[in-house]
Amino acid sequence: MTSAEPKEFFSTAEAANMLGVAHRTIQLWVEAGILQAWKTAGGHRRIAVSSVERLLAERADRLAPPPVVNTSRQFSVLVVDDDPALLRLYELEMSGWDIPLTILKARDGFDALLQIGRHPPDLLITDLNMPGMDGFRMVATLRGDPAYRQLRIIVISGLDTATVSALGLSGDIPVFTKPVSFARLRSAVGTALVP
Predict the structure, then answer these.
(1) How far apart are CA 59 and CA 57, in angstroms?
(2) Exposure string over 125-142, b if 16+ CB within 10 A, otherwise e
(3) Where do the domains of the chain lie?
(4) Residue 1: pLDDT band by 50, 70, 90 thresholds?
């Protein structure tokens, strides 16, 4: 490749440097499908330039600063997803935000309901398509219980919004399609937690 040809990929270290994140975060983003990548014969990851540029553009798309969150207290957020790598990715990303968060994790709706029964979080972020108890049943259970009817919920799903609506998810719940822009998720979390 000559220097005049456009670059088509970055190494993991180059992508981490461009995005301002740790090397491990890049690996998790690749495993979660947020960044498109492949491995060389030698086992090194190569990250598509277009993937990195897309994430950079999403960051630049922030038209307004995120909502200011009351930082006089710690907020608890329960994240529910059956993919352990994705749960870890959410935890890493959210722990770097300027919001005082305690991040709890659950692997399905049943596990989440048990945790909510013991310690109701300030916010629930959930996938919908999970084995065991899926997100639809979990949300319906919460909305049917007066004690949890007002629990703030954000959905992140691989299902398109038309399917989510057709399957009866409440219209007051923000729905983001996977892979979610962390800038948009940060804004939604900030908005949900603003008193």
Answers:
(1) 5
(2) bbbbebeebbbbbbbebb
(3) 9-60, 75-193
(4) very low
Buried b (16+ CB within 10 A) or exposed e, 92-118: bbbeeeebebebbbbbbbbbbbebbee
- C-alpha 12 chain-centroid distance: 21
Q: Measure Cα distances from 145 to 5, 107, 139 in Å.
A: 60, 21, 10
Give the per-residue pLDDT at 6. 67
Sign, Cα dihedral of 64, 169, 181, 83: positive
Q: Which of 131, 125, 148, 117 lies closest to 78, judged by CA?
A: 125
CATH architecture of the domain formed by 9-60: Orthogonal Bundle (1.10)
Q: What is the CATH superfamily name and number for domain 75-193?
A: Response regulator (3.40.50.2300)
Per-residue model confidence (pLDDT) at position 87: 92
Q: pLDDT (tens digit, 9 = 90+) per residue, 22-32?
A: 888 888 888 88
Which pLDDT score, from 0 to 100, does residue 71 have? 61
With a cut of 80, say whether residue 105 has pLDDT above it.
yes
Asked whether the domain spanning 75-193 has the same topology as the one spanning 9-60, the reply is no
CB 125 within 8 A of CB 156: yes
